[in-house]
Write a structure and sequence with these properties.
InterPro entries: RNaseH_sf (IPR036397). One of its GO terms (molecular function) is nucleic acid binding. This is Transposable element tc3 transposase. It comes from Lasius niger. It contains four helices and five strands; from the N terminus they run αβββααβαβ. It is α/β, with parallel strands linked by helices and 166 residues long. It has a single domain, classed as Ribonuclease H-like superfamily/Ribonuclease H (Nucleotidyltransferase, domain 5), CATH 3.30.420. A five-stranded mixed β-sheet has the order 3-2-1-4-5, covered by helices on one side. A hairpin with a 2-residue loop joins β2 and β3. It starts with 13 loop residues before the first helix and ends in a 9-residue tail after the last strand.
């Protein structure tokens, strides 16, 4: 018998399974038809950082002949969170942009309107053929955000997109 660690994974609803399979089949079909397709997908994500950082105490050890009584400070009295957005389109790194610590649909829409126009620095033909990939987190899925994506980026991938065709 061996010890195993649980692997945290994102919860998926039953309705997500079929949509995920359809998306994977569509993506494979697009990539088979055009091997440069994935280079035209703008992959985006946000991440939060705190002064505590991330540490795995199961794999973090201090080796010594004697107990040095090492410790790591945590649960600081003054805490901060930095929320950062970045994207990758082919060989272009876009961002990073600092977002509010608690991202809402309105804050994300403001970001799309005010900060994302930096894409204008990317060649027009690259932007014109790009597909914007968004995940289904609540701020990305609000009606105003989906409306903005439909109006400004005809090719986008994400929850709320009815069809994955141009």
């Amino acid at each position: 018998m061996y010890p195993y660690h649980y692997q945290p994974v994102q919860e998926l609803y039953e309705r997500d399974r079929e949509a995920g399979v359809q998306f994977c089949n569509w993506l494979l079909q697009e990539n088979n038809a055009d091997p440069t397709f994935l280079g035209r997908v703008l992959f985006t994500d946000e991440s939060q950082f705190t002064q505590s950082g991330v540490i795995n105490f199961h794999t973090n050890h201090h080796w010594s002949l004697e107990n040095p009584h090492v410790y790591r400070r945590s649960h600081m009295q003054r805490q901060f969170t930095v929320n950062v957005w970045a994207g990758i389109l082919d060989d272009h790194l876009i961002g990073s942009f600092r977002l509010p610590p608690c991202l809402t649909g309105n804050a994300y829409l403001h970001f799309l309107n005010s900060d994302l126009p930096v894409l204008e620095d990317i060649e027009f033909q690259t932007r014109r053929n790009a597909w914007f990939m968004y995940d289904g987190t609540p701020p990305h899925f609000t009606f105003p955000v989906r409306t903005f994506l439909h109006d400004h980026y005809l090719n986008w991938i994400g929850r709320g997109q009815d069809a994955l065709v141009k």
